[in-house]
Amino acid sequence: MRYKIKGEEIRTENAAKPSSQKSLVVDDYIGGILNKPSILDFGCGKLRYSDTLALVASKVTFVDSEIQLNREQSVRGERTTVKNYVKSNYSGCKTVPYESLDKHRSKYDVITCTNVLSAIPCKRMIADVLEHIIRLLRKDGFAIFVNQHRSSYFSKYESGEKMLHGYLYSGSKGSSYYGILDKPVIELLLKKHGYEIIKTWVVGESTFTEARPNS
Predict the structure, then answer these.
(1) DSSP secondary structure string for all residues of the chain
(2) Is residue 86 part of a domain?
(3) What's the domain range around 71?
(4) How many domains does the chain have?
(5) Angle formed by the axes of helices 123-136 and 183-192, to 10°?
(6) How many CB atoms lie within 10 A of CB 84?
(7) 161-202 pLDDT per residue, tens
(8) Would you say residue 157 lies in a domain?
(9) 0.70 exceeded by the pTM?
């Protein structure tokens, strides 16, 4: 997604990390998902965890912006698009652009949202993402939110301007935003948008929160 903040354009697609930089603790969590659920990966980026998701799920829907899904880039070692890579490598899986998500009616057992909310610099878009997730979950389904609450490179961002949950940083390669969503922040945010917290735990620099629609 792209945002205009105080005259600066933030291109979040540039922040997506490749599969070679996946978090082992996140990958281990995904690999431990049982019973072959249907999964929606919200903010799939460059398919950082796609192999593991496809292995544990009955089907996976990968969601990101039109730009991220359709631009040619390096995806898991190939020069292609995310959309074409999914079509060629994951039978029964598909991509859905965020811009068309209002029309998507399928329900999912599990929705993964990994290092996505921390990249969104405005309240309205965070609310929209959380509303989509809660709408697309089955009644007995759950979402897993993973966010970093600290990192060695946060010091760079902290030299920027304080904004929302984090900082707006302007560097030689343009402007970027990173939010710091620790346990109190993410739990309050989810409860505010109609979620019930199942559990939250911390592994290293990452905070994991499982949540479901508040009945």
Answers:
(1) -EEEETTEEEEGGGGPPPGGG--HHHHHHHHT--S--EEEEET-TTTTTHHHHHHH-SEEEEEE-HHHHHS-EEETTEEE-HHHHHHHH-TT-EEEEGGGGGG----EEEEEEES-GGG---HHHHHHHHHHHHHHEEEEEEEEEEEES--TTHHHHTTSEEETTEEEEEETTEEEEEE---HHHHHHHHHHTTEEEEEEEEETTEEEEEEEE--
(2) yes
(3) 2-149+180-213
(4) 1
(5) 70
(6) 15
(7) 777 787 777 766 677 778 889 999 999 999 999 999 999 999
(8) no
(9) yes
Question: What pLDDT, in 10s, does the model give residues 103-162?
Answer: 999 999 999 999 999 888 889 999 999 999 999 999 999 999 999 876 555 566 566 677
Position 14 scores a pLDDT of 60
User: Does any domain span residue 156?
Assistant: no
CATH number, domain with residue 17: 3.40.50.150
Structure tokens at 210: 């499982």
Give the count of beta carbons closer than 10 Å to the beta carbon of residue 209. 22
* Residue 34 in tokens: 């049982």
Tokens of 48: 């950082």
Q: Please report whether residue 25 resides in a domain.
A: yes
Q: What is the pLDDT of residues 62-115, one digit of tens each?
A: 999 999 999 999 999 999 999 999 999 999 999 999 999 999 999 999 999 999
pLDDT at 4: 60
Q: What angle do CA 7, 74, 69 make, to 5 degrees?
A: 60
